[in-house]
Amino acid sequence: MGCRETAVSESGLDVPNAARRGRVHETDGRFEHFCTECGRVAPFGYGVRLHTGQLGKMTSARIDSTAAITDFLNRVLAGGALAVAELEAKARAAGLLGERQQIQHAKAFKKAKKSLGMAEDGTS
């Protein structure tokens, strides 16, 4: 996932700044998130649930949900297979699956499983 091209901005928030990487701050009830890679203002993210204190991953580049889910599946399944309910709970905690959504019906998960060469039942 690469950061977006530099845009001209009077505020300077679109300029890379290593000191701002991953920062989140609130100004007048508005949260500003900064890219964890380059420090630019980060309008895109996943796994963000501010009301629970979960900051998630923010980036200045559009997020490819299939790539994010593929990365997630590689990490959580590295130790072996998980029960579907456990995998869904981890996906929800990561902000990749809706509260009432099931993995078997999520298009992005289907694409990620296909890109990993996994069968519908989660085996390879």
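(ticket continues) Second input and output from the same batch:
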Amino acid sequence: MPANLLLVKYRQQFGLQPFIRYVLLGYALVTLLHLFLHGFWTSLLVRAVSGLAASGMTTLTVLYFLQGMAPAKRLNGAMVGICVPQLAIPLARALSPGCSSGEIGTCCTGSSSASALLSLGGVVADTAAE
């Protein structure tokens, strides 16, 4: 089942933020597991869960940008929400070129885990504020 279809089905029944919380927690746990078990299969699992997390985070990014804009500027918020995630790969290659060559893979996995935990904290804090 594609991740976007899973997101739509889960969102209809339970909402977007619970989906994001569970997927980000799973992603953080899988990346922490990958720090200790270096191997092809754990790397593949990290990439699979990363894609699942990205499907929900893209939707949540657009939603947050739409909510943050004035009603007259909501189209601009949708454009920014769609364009910002596309900067992730070029920005990652510019900030840490060693990660793409495989020289410092554990550092990159650790930073992925840390960013997942920070994102999870932001989502949980936003849910608590509502």
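Agent notes: The chain has one domain: 3-129. Residues 98 and 104 are 6 Å apart (CA to CA). Closing as not reproducible unless the customer responds.
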